[in-house]
TrEMBL record:
Top-level taxonomic group: Bacteria
Protein's name in the database: NAD(P)-dependent oxidoreductase
One Pfam family in the UniProt entry: DRL_cat
InterPro entries, per database record: DRL_cat (IPR048423), NAD(P)-bd_dom_sf (IPR036291)
SUPFAM superfamilies per record: NAD(P)-binding Rossmann-fold domains
Domain Oxidoreductase DRL-like catalytic: 160-325
Gene3D superfamilies (UniProt xref): NAD(P)-binding Rossmann-like Domain
Amino acid sequence: MLNMDKKLAKREEEGKIIRAGIVGAGQMGRGMVTQMALMKGIMPAIVSDIKFENVINAFHYAGISDEDIAVAKTLEEANLYMEQGKYVATENSDFISHANLVEVAIDVTGVPEVGVKIAIDAMNNKKHVVMMDVETDVVIGSYLKKLGDKNGVIYTGSAGDEPGAVMELFSFARAMGMEVVVMGKGKNNKLDYDCNPDTVLEEATRRKMSPRMLTSFKDGTKTMVEMTAMSNATGFVPDVIGGHGPAASPKDRCAELNEIFKLKKDGGILSRHGVVEYVNGIAPGVFVTVTTKNEEIAYQMGYHSMGPGPLWTLYRPYHLCNLETPLTVASIVIDGEPTIIPLDGPVSECITVAKRDLKAGETIDGIGGYTTYGSIATAQETYEKGYVVYALVNKNTRMKCDVKKGTLLTLDMVDLDTSTQLYQVRKEQDKMYNNGYALK
């Protein structure tokens, strides 16, 4: 991102404004629209939401006057208004993937079944895609990366999200020749595997959040999804299913982690290095823990107040989520550089855990719901044991047998909804890698 301010200013001067299309104008989309409108060389040219008033409100929050906003009911109108330099508002998310002047489509919906359609349609129309919907990425990210390559466009996760933020530290450390042994994120909501939209309603209302979103934070699902994305971009794996989740403080540069993340034989908690983790107490930051075999560099790290080693933790105490996303848009258009992309085939999977006792015939739900939560496991173990990939669970998923609370659900325990595009694309990805995952 070095010199991106100058590069964007140059685009502004030359009239080469990057036109982005944003799907979803809730809290995340609204902030992104506002931030992007304040920047040089880039604009939120077209924004859609199923609640049309969300789009208008987003533009107003950004200080855009009504005379500069045009409402598009057809694709032809959207194209015309964009050519006129208007900010286009619409209820139809398909326009983002098809509008002539859109260079980058951004999914901010948080709904995997929406995310898959946006991404595929946009890339088939030669548009870059920024996937803020990490739940989609961890299910079919490898497929989408290949589709982008096929169409000569970039598929990427977003700066600001924890996976993108920690990827910057990961690349920074490796570029300096450091060996990264752990990468991860902080968690500030105390884990509550039993929570649901009803139990968090009061807090969600107070914080102006969706109860399901807050539930997904508190029951750990979002953390597991984000760790899965980190794993799939780097090859790092969870040391144990769900991670250890130790507690630490950001004081003294997270020095506690230098001891905690030693191997067990050296007094730490890990059975191996090259792992993804989460840490209670250092949110909203991200970190990488590094080492080196070079004695001079070890001395220099101590000299720079990083501690005695052999492990040191590089900590970024913030991630600005949607506010940073426009930087990813600029990076892929100007420099051809993604922020975070999955490797060629999943390394880990976000799997499904019973939140309570479940009965045969009962319909269960997915992220932020009442019946299940997500965890992380290696892809190898997921396929060998047939764990249910979490984002494939939706309101039409039904239990085939009784299970106890805390059970890791397997494919023989559930009837998944096979009618969705997400399910069908996941089947294609599994065939692509011949991984033996037994979807019908």
